[in-house]
Specification:
Layout lengths: L9 H9 L7 H11 L4 E5 L5 H15 L7 E4 L3 H14 L7 E4 L5 H13 L3 E4 L1 H8 L11 E4 L2 H6 L3 H8 L7 E6 L4 H10 L4 E5 L8 E7 L5 H9 L7 E4 L3 H13 L4 E4 L5 H12 L5 E4 L14 E4 L6 H8 L9 E7 L4 H11 L4 E2 L40
Parallel strand pairs: 1-6, 1-7, 2-4, 2-5, 3-4, 5-6, 8-13, 8-14, 9-11, 9-12, 10-11, 12-13
């Protein structure tokens, strides 16, 4: 099947042709006809399967054939990075159309907030928003969403994990009851089904390659103590002909420490985390995309919502907290039929978690011996649970429904 088989509006098709889009991915091939027929949809697909185009293209086709000066579509996403990614993709697809769009997210300055206010009152055709930022505008009473025909929830599972369910439900009270609602998630956990029952009307469902890494990813793991991790990374990267490398780390404190260590070793590495201003984060990502920066050290916030091609190596500095997150992290490489390498560092405390990952993907990941210069690491014995000692005077306390974390 080809994209021109969908009989898109000629201006939209021209944009696809100019971007070299010829053959739809499986989720695009299945989702686009459903969305064009105005049915509600739940789409389960891992990172890198092309779901952004799967929902943008039919929406853009509707707007191209039936132009409006109102806000027609609201896309809600968990992070500013994903909001920007979707907006950039939309601008590319709609280059030859008259469709307008705006990404709304926290962390920007007062002038950006005023620009968002005008778009929300005057009517950009497509609004891509994080829940918290949109609620800030809604609470001020000037938002006009009574003409919205399409609501799209992207990375719905991540939004629920981040505690945004109440905001999402509140936002929907500002929308017309009669609308098309599309929900995309990497997992179909019970809480996602519960949310879908509340928001969607007799939805179609598509599941694409759930819980399986891309075929082009070569996976490996090292058994390593925490004190050996930085030296192991430097050993793996120093003197190598690198293209693009992403290192995912569990906390921003570790991110900052690793960034300093890699820079001291003469490696072109920069960190991205929530302590950076939005403009700083955008500059780091821009330099990484343009290959001016070789190594990106990031917290889990980027495991989804970053669309960068030709990433040759992904390193999990820490084993992901949830098995499904492993899929999202290593999904940064081997995009669109390319190949890549994903390495995971397993300490003595995370072996059971990694064993759960192997169960999820239905395969054993090869354990690679440590270089002699690094020393001897822990023995892999996932059947033995080792409790990590707590360091500190007071036990940590977290809200059950917190909207931010140390990432």
């Amino acid at each position: 099947m080809k994209f021109n088989d969908f009989n898109f509006d000629s201006n939209l098709q021209e944009g696809l042709d100019s971007m070299g889009f010829n053959t739809p991915t499986p989720i695009q091939e299945q989702a686009i006809p459903i969305i064009l027929s105005n049915k509600d949809l739940i789409g389960c697909a891992q990172t890198g399967t092309g779901k952004t185009a799967a929902f943008l293209l039919p929406i853009l086709n509707k707007l191209s054939t039936n132009p409006t000066d109102k806000t027609d579509t609201l896309i809600i996403v968990p992070t500013r990075e994903l909001a920007l990614q979707i907006d950039q993709a939309l601008q590319g697809f709609s280059y030859f159309t008259s469709v307008s769009s705006l990404a709304i997210y926290g962390g920007s300055d007062g002038s950006a907030f005023e620009k968002e206010r005008r778009a929300l009152t005057e009517g950009a055709n497509v609004i891509i928003a994080t829940p918290g930022r949109l609620m800030a505008h809604l609470n001020m009473g000037y938002v006009k969403l009574d003409n919205v025909k399409h609501l799209i929830l992207d990375e719905a599972d991540r939004m629920l994990d981040m505690g945004f369910v109440d905001d999402i439900m509140k936002i929907t009270t500002y929308l017309p009851k009669v609308r098309q609602t599309l929900m995309f998630s990497a997992t179909m956990a019970p809480k996602i089904r519960t949310l879908a029952t509340k928001l969607l009307n007799n939805p179609e469902q598509i599941t694409i390659s759930l819980a399986k890494p891309a075929e082009g990813v070569v996976q490996g793991a090292y058994l390593v103590f925490d004190t050996q991790k930085n030296n192991l990374i430097k050993s793996l990267l120093a003197g190598k002909d690198l293209s693009s490398v992403i290192i995912f780390v569990s906390t921003k404190i570790k991110v900052k420490e690793l960034e300093r260590d890699l820079q001291k070793a003469g490696l072109k590495a920069k960190a991205i985390h929530s302590d950076l201003e939005q403009l700083e984060r955008e500059e780091v990502l821009r330099n990484f995309r343009s290959k001016k920066l070789q190594i990106l050290v990031a917290t889990d916030i980027l495991s989804r919502g970053i669309d960068i091609e030709d990433i040759g190596l992904v390193i999990n500095y820490d084993v992901p907290g949830e098995p499904a997150d492993y899929i999202h992290r290593i999904g940064r490489t081997a995009r669109a039929a390319s190949t890549g390498v994903a390495l995971t560092f397993i300490n003595e405390y995370d072996q059971q978690k990694f064993s759960q990952i192997e169960t999820l993907i239905g395969a054993e990941v090869k354990k690679i011996p440590l270089p002699e210069s690094i020393g001897v690491g822990p023995v892999y014995a996932p059947e033995v649970k080792i409790k990590k000692p707590f360091v500190g005077k007071n036990k940590p306390h977290f809200s059950k429904n917190r909207k931010s974390a140390n990432k």
